[in-house]
Every structure is written in C-alpha cells, then in structure tokens.
Specification:
Layout: E1 3-5, E2 14-20, H1 24-32, E3 40-46, E4 53-57, E5 60-64, H2 66-69, E6 72-80, E7 89-95, H3 99-107, E8 115-120, E9 127-131, E10 134-138, H4 140-143, E11 146-150
Antiparallel strand pairs: 1-6, 2-3, 2-6, 3-4, 4-5, 6-11, 7-8, 7-11, 8-9, 9-10
Length: 156
C-alpha cells in the first residue's frame, strides 16, 4: 500500500482518499467539493510548476492549489511504471499511447494483465523491468505511458 499526498501524484495516477487534513474553511470547502475519505481521485493535469493540480473526483474536474493538495492523503491504486519504486510488483492496467507504441509494447509482452517487477526506477535513465522472466529497459517517455496497479490491489 503506497500512501502519498495528492500533490505528489502525476497524471494519470489514481487513488483512494484516506485522509483530508487541514482545518477551518479550507477543509470544509474541500469536503463540500466531494473530496471525502473513500472517494476515488484521478490526477488529470499538473501545471509546470506544480500549482494548480487538476483532478477528477466523483465525475467532476476540480483545480486545487498545491497547498490544498498537500493536505489530502491518497492510497495509490493506479500509477505509471516510470514513477514506481524499485522492487515493487505491479500489474499492467493499460497503455495510454498511440497504436504504434501499443503494438510495440504488446510485441514485448507488455499487455494488460501482465505482472511486472520493477528492477530499477531509472531517474533520469531508463526504467528496467522484469516481465515473464526477461529484463527490459524502457525509456522514461515510454514507461510514463504504461498504467499499472500494485499487485493484489483490486480497482473498480
């Protein structure tokens, strides 16, 4: 179980809200907008300097300031391979890319439902993964298009 502040997630990462911090008017405003414990939140976009963060919660798109997003704790249910820690076992959910890259990744055995182990997270170099007994090196751009969920996590 990976828990992070909402401000540290990037698109298209998704998770379940486990805690809404803060106090007073800002906390009440967040709760009124549907940002409540148990809700599923998906990051749509992040501005170049990290402020604001555009999210989708309960079918609505909202923009939050970074300081507001830092107060919201999220249990990560879906992320991208490029932001996954070394040693984690994940399952591919989807590939958010054009048909050419989807086909290339499928030829490498990276299809939805495939279990993958992250060997090295790269940063800034390639991401090294193990899939079906073979190791592959993926560039950061390619790895950023592969949506995964932690092994054992069931999503809606």
């Amino acid at each position: 179980m990976v828990i992070r502040p909402l401000s540290q997630l990037g698109p298209p990462e998704r998770g379940r809200i486990i805690r809404v911090g803060g106090s007073g008017e800002i906390r009440r405003r967040l709760l009124d907008m549907g940002i409540v414990t148990g809700s599923v939140v998906e990051v749509q976009r992040v501005a170049p300097l990290g402020d604001p963060v555009e999210i989708r919660v309960k079918g609505y798109d909202l923009a939050l300031r970074k300081e507001e997003a830092e107060k919201i704790q999220v249990e990560l249910t879906e992320g991208v391979i490029s932001r996954t820690a070394a040693g984690e076992k994940v399952v591919i959910v989807s590939v958010r890319a054009g048909w050419g890259l989807q086909r290339r990744l499928a030829d490498l055995g990276l299809t939805p439902g495939t279990e993958v182990t992250i060997i090295s997270g790269g940063r800034p170099g390639p991401v090294i993964i193990e899939v079906r007994g073979s190791r592959l090196a993926l560039g950061q751009g390619m790895a950023g298009k592969i949506v995964v969920r932690p092994e054992g996590v069931i999503t809606e």
